[in-house]
Input
Amino acid sequence: MNSIKNAFLKGLNTFNIDALANRLYVVKSDSEIEEIVEDLNKHRLKHFILGGGSNVLFTKNFAGGIIKNELKGIKVVEEDDNSVIVQAKAGEIWDDFVNFTVSKQFWGLENLSGIPGTVGAAPVQNIGAYGVEAKDTIIRIIGFDFVDLEWRIFSNAECKFGYRESIFKAEYKNRILITAVDFKLSKTPAPKLQYGALKELENIKADALSVVDIREAVLKIRNSKLPDPKLLGNAGSFFKNPVIDNELYLKLQTEYPDITCYPFADGNVKIPAGWLIEKCGYKGKQKGNVGTYENQSLVIVNHGGATGQEVFQYAREIQSAVKAKFSIEIRYEVQIL
Output
C-alpha cells in the first residue's frame, strides 16, 4: 500500500489549488483496496476518491484520506461483427482511452474527446459533450463498496444516470471505488452530429466521414474554447446547463431573441449556462486572482495564486448574478470540498 502523510494536493487538481490531506493513498492494484479501507478505519479517517482532479475544488485542507485511483489497463472482453465491449480500468486517462477506441475504429466515444479526467470519473459525473453522454455506451461498472466491504457490479440501469448525475454522485457518493468500466461500442459508422458546431460535418457524406474526423473536429472545437489547465488552472465547465420549463423559456425568448435551447421530451428545455453568465457581464472578467475565461463563460480560471475560497466566492457571485437577472439558479458541476 502506497500511503503519504500530510500530502500536498496542488499537483493533483487542475485548478492548481494549494491544499493538504492527512493521507494520500495511491491505488495501483485491486489487491491494495481492502488494505486501504483497513487503514482508513484504523485512523478513523473520512475519505475522498480522486480521479484526475479535473472536477474538484479544494476550498480548505482535507482532514482525511484522499484515494488516488491509478488502476491501468484496457482490453476487449467481447465482440461480434457489429459491436465490441471494451473494458478500461478506472485510472486510465479518459482521453487516452477515447483515442484508443478511435484508433481501433470503434464508434461511440468520439464526441467525448478531449474531456479531462479519468475513466473512473466518467460515470460518476456522467460526462457529456456534443449530444453524447457516458451513459450511452456504459453497460457495466465494477467497484468496491466501502460500506459493505465487498466487490459489486452495477448495470447501466443501476447507475441511475441523469444529466451530470449518477448513483455514485448521489446516495453512493464516495462509497464505491470504481475499478473498471465496460463500454459497448459500434464497429459500424454511427456519427452523432446533431449538436452545435458538429452540424457542419453533416455536409460530408456519411460513408466518407471517419470516426477520426469527428474526434479531430471535437478536439479543435474544445481547444478553441477551453484553456489548457497546465497553463491556466481550471476545472472545465464550473456550472451545469440549467433545465427550465417552456413557459419561462418563451418569456426569455421575447426579451432575448438570441437565446438558444435544447428541448426535452417532457416539454422542458435546457439552456446554456454560459450564455446566461455572459449576459450578466462575466465573460472574460477578472477579480483578483480569479476570473472567467475569455472564450467560454462557463469556465472559471485561476490566474495564479488563487485560493479555493477565492474561486468559490467568485462562483457564488456569478450564481447570484444569474439568479437576480433571470430568476434561474445555475448549479455547480464541480465538486466543492
The helical segments are 33-42, 94-103, 121-125, 211-225, 246-255, 273-279, 308-326. The CA atoms of residues 95 and 115 lie 6 Å apart. The longest helix spans residues 308-326. The mean pLDDT is 90.
